[in-house]
From TrEMBL, chains A, B:
Listed name of the protein: Asparaginase
InterPro entries (UniProt xref): Asparaginase_II
Domain of life: Bacteria
PANTHER family: L-ASPARAGINASE, PUTATIVE (AFU_ORTHOLOGUE AFUA_3G11890)-RELATED
A Pfam family the protein falls into: Asparaginase_II
Length: 331, 331
């Protein structure tokens, strides 16, 4: 087993202060590994980085078209959003279209990280709802599929037809039998895979033919939706949103909890997956930036990049105190 | 150079999800290394974990007694507090006693992490002040010393008499010439040292004689103040506060940014210092708990411990999804 390698570092006063190690893989459209750092076979939980895989059955089943889902809704089904008004509005409308409400969600209540919405709730002395949960879009997708299947309301249970369909799609597209699952923050099963398997699945999305078979069409539509509606996939100020905008809608990327990041590069027909072993989000954001710059799809001098890679660190008085940068030898 | 070793791990669904590596040292009263994990000579920035070292000149100079500082104020001078009302009240009174105000601080404005105070500011549409900065207590101490010395107002500059006194005390107590400094979040210089040097300084505090020389008396008073007033050193819900309470005031501990943690064990006349290399706070909290349990001063089954070590992870619906625990072989 190969050890994880240094990917991102915090420097202060000209000295190394902190360092993040990780595993990363770039796959081509055949699922072959083009490049790897650390251990490509390291088993990880993709967490929210695999939301586009979890959304495949929604499209493949015909449920999305039967419900008349828009491109925005498809992007939202792949989102880890911050509970801003645009997100909660979409979730509420979607639930209403299904004849359902907040109580039908099974993601749990999460306080919004969107500042405006957080402050509004505090001022109004209102509690957060399940629609604020960062996964509420994915759960609206699960509910749409469950209704279409005529399946029961406990759609996050492992043996529910929705999750069984997700598992089948996940294993087929990663090209691996999942070695097991954990329960995610939103109560849905999260299937483990290798970093290479996750990168392979992203390469499949990258090369998916929009006029191909059911799965190809589903993957191509989801990629297009994410890249076209970055504000729905995360939110203002967030890495996914800002970096997808910086790449002009040509690349879809997605973060996952515990420092996972993936990228779908349709023009290059490549997929990327990485995991920072310590779970530190700043490390994953810097590392995905470094790989996207290396692939020639992200401008290293774009403000969205410089917020995360070669990022000047300032203190409470705005003084420059350090830099967060790529580790030497990585990417 | 010895590599850092696994110290804390997140497990989900029976599989390892994330892992934190670090360096740790336990020193005895002579400054000898009793036990070490990783590289004792690894150079780190102690960040806020060395606030009791930064407070030594305040006492040794006679400034603290001349200003009639209380035990509570000495604890507050060593604090990384969360800007709760008890903290901002103390900072404002202290500044007023000096004939100064918020604008004389040089720590910068930081939003309080204390929820009640944060919500109060949002409801009142008030901005945060410098007294909310987690370091405002330390800066009140710096100002007290600067006044006593008759020195100028820019007390965070490296060549200011306050910082020169801090540097001298820091190097003497760590037993090392600092290889350099960085600028901290609060604009004060932060002197680098080895993990062993930081542990040695904590052992000096642990063994300090309350009836000894000026430095011994100062160190003993600061340790006693921190252990006696844990609510002023951090705040409700925070690791330093909860764990010091759990140890019944017999041990003083202090966190620092980027995952540093130190402990002063007076009864055992030992000092501990550790750094998680990725800067992840949860890793440092679990690791210091593990070492304090190992030293026999912290109950492994105390709720304050179980929040951080062998800590059950729950999702947004309160379901158990994993555990955060000590890495096998550590401590």
């Amino acid at each position: 087993m190969t050890e994880p390698v240094p990917m991102a570092e915090l420097w202060r006063g000209g000295m190394l202060e902190s360092r993040h190690l990780g595993h990363a893989v770039i796959c081509d459209e055949k699922g072959a590994i083009i490049d790897a750092w650390g251990d490509p076979q390291a088993v990880i939980f993709p967490r929210s980085s695999c939301k586009m895989l979890q959304a495949l059955p929604l499209l493949e089943s015909g449920a999305a078209d039967a419900a008349g889902l828009s491109e925005a809704q498809l992007a939202f089904a792949c989102a880890s959003h911050q509970g801003a008004a645009i997100h909660t509005d979409m979730a509420r409308r979607w639930l209403a279209d299904l004849g359902l409400g907040d109580a039908d969600l099974r993601c749990g209540v999460q306080e919004p990280s969107d500042r405006a919405e957080r402050d509004r709730l505090i001022r109004a002395e209102e509690g957060a709802c399940q629609v604020h949960n960062n996964c509420s879009g994915k759960h609206c997708g699960f509910l749409t599929l469950a209704q279409h299947m005529g399946a029961g309301p406990e759609y996050v249970e492992l043996d529910h037809p929705v999750q069984q369909a997700v598992k089948a799609a996940f294993e087929e597209v990663t090209g691996e039998q999942s070695p097991g699952h954990g329960i995610d923050g939103c109560s849905a099963p999260n299937f483990a895979t290798s970093v290479a398997g996750l990168a392979r699945s992203m390469a499949f999305f990258a090369a998916a033919n929009p006029d191909g078979d059911t799965r190809n069409r589903a993957a191509a539509r989801l990629t297009r939706a994410m890249a076209a509606r970055p504000e729905l996939v995360a939110g203002e100020g967030r890495a996914c949103t800002e970096l997808m905008r910086a790449m002009g809608g040509k690349v879809a990327i997605k973060t996952g909890a515990e420092a996972v990041f993936v990228a779908i590069l349709p023009e290059k027909r490549r997929g990327i997956a990485l995991k920072i072993v310590d779970g530190g989000t700043r490390g994953a954001e810097a590392a995905i930036c470094a790989l996207l710059v290396r692939e020639g799809v992200l401008d290293p001098n774009h403000p969205a990049t410089l917020k995360r890679l070669d990022a000047v660190q300032r203190n409470w008085r705005g003084r420059e105190v350090g830099i967060f940068r790529k580790a030497e030898g990585f990417a």
